[in-house]
Amino acid sequence: MKMTNKEDTANTDIGPDTTLLLVDDDAPFLRRLARAMETRGFTVDTSESVTEGLAKVKNQPPAYAVVDLRLEDGNGLDVVSALHERRPDAKVVVLTGYGNIATAVTAVKLGAIDYLSKPADADDVFNALLNTSNGKAPPPENPMSADRVRWEHIQRVYEACDRNVSETARRLNMHRRTLQRILAKRAPR
Question: What string of DSSP letters covers the chain?
Fold first, then answer.
């Protein structure tokens, strides 16, 4: 992960409330991102679990948040939803190493403003939080494979069923254990 020091961007567009909550169970990544965001003018608080993140949102909802999707004790979307309920104006970016369209759509519906795949550098996170990117992202060089399209469809149905494996398997006419194995794997390329 590339962390650059951008003193010229520090505190320029953040606004009066500079509170930022980072929720990620990868401790080294969390420390590096926290340091990088502090140099850009944020007042950073960190959490390594959904439970801890929810407690911090309940006690003092931040103006900004960067939340990992998959955490050891649950789904980061629960933190996004709780923050949006407590503070609808909060800007949330979801980070994940397991990017897919269905969870991106769900994250946006729950109040996230952007969805970034890991590894994302501090500039990408900063730009997403402040929405300072210049135009649209370039189109992908390689389109999705048939396996990836299938995986995306499964993820979309899974999210539509509120992450209920049995109901998703029934709707897809698939054995529940087969679906569990598919969901446990990383997305195909």
Answer: ------GGGTTSSS-S--EEEEE-S-HHHHHHHHHHHHHTT-EEEEESSHHHHHHHHHHS--SEEEEESEETTEETHHHHHHHHHH-TT-EEEEEESS--HHHHHHHHHTTEEEEEESS--HHHHHHHHHT---SPPPPPSSPPPHHHHHHHHHHHHHHHTTT-HHHHHHHHT--HHHHHHHHHSPPP-
